[in-house]
Amino acid sequence: MQEFKIYFDEILDRKSLPKIELELLTKAEEILKTAYAPYSKFNVGASLLLEDGSYVVGSNQENASFPCGICAERVALFATKANNPHLKIKKIAITTKSEEFNIGEPIAPCGMCRQVLLEYEGQQKEPIEILLFNETKILKFKKAKDLLPLHFSEDRLKRK
């Protein structure tokens, strides 16, 4: 039997983070307020730090026709690639809030968002650091691949 090990740092005191990461978390919390989640009642905010020091944010956007909605992470990632395709993504911070659910631990991105993160990480040939957080805890991953060890990749496909 083989095992996967996922490495991350658990941070319980925000004050120990560098100023730029505190700003990243603040921007994710601010954009969280713009989430449109009348069906799930589960708001998500994401903030990206780009290599030039700029930020791009996104919040989840739902729709009565459920497949039409989109996650906060992909809103921010797609906006970045559409408007700044030449800039590398250094970090992403993701936070959640719900008035109907108790969210005890930081929430990780869905599988689709993990795949997009992983593909962008591969395109830029540099890791994207991930910070998942709530009011009490921050989980810090060094790269997107840490969240999706058995990822889909076209280079794993072989033509007959």
Key terms:
160 residues; six-stranded mixed β-sheet; globular; Cytidine Deaminase, domain 2; alpha+beta
- Look at the structure and name the CATH superfamily: Cytidine Deaminase, domain 2
Architecture in CATH? 3-Layer(aba) Sandwich
What's the CATH C level?
Alpha Beta
| Strand count | 6
Helices and strands, in N-to-C order? EHEEHEHEE
pLDDT < 50 runs, ≥5 residues: none
Task: Profile the largest sheet.
Answer: 6 strands, mixed
Total of DSSP H or I helical runs spanning 4+ residues: 3
Strand order of the largest sheet: 1-6-5-4-2-3
Strand content: 15-25%
* Distance from first to last alpha carbon: 30 Å
Query: Which fold name corresponds to the CATH topology?
Result: Cytidine Deaminase, domain 2
Question: What is Rg?
Answer: 16 Å
User: Could you tell me the mean pLDDT?
Assistant: 93
Helical fraction equals 25-40%
- Computed structural class: alpha+beta
Count structural domains. 1
Q: What is the overall shape?
A: globular
Can you walk through the features of this model?
With 160 residues, this protein is of the alpha+beta class. It has one domain (9-140): Cytidine Deaminase, domain 2 (3-Layer(aba) Sandwich), CATH 3.40.140. It is 25% helix and 21% strand. It has helices spanning 19-32, 72-83, 111-124; strands at 9-11, 43-50, 55-59, 89-97, 129-133, 138-141. It has a six-stranded mixed beta sheet with strand order 1-6-5-4-2-3. The protein is globular and about 50 Å long. It starts with 8 loop residues before the first strand and ends in a 19-residue tail after the last strand.
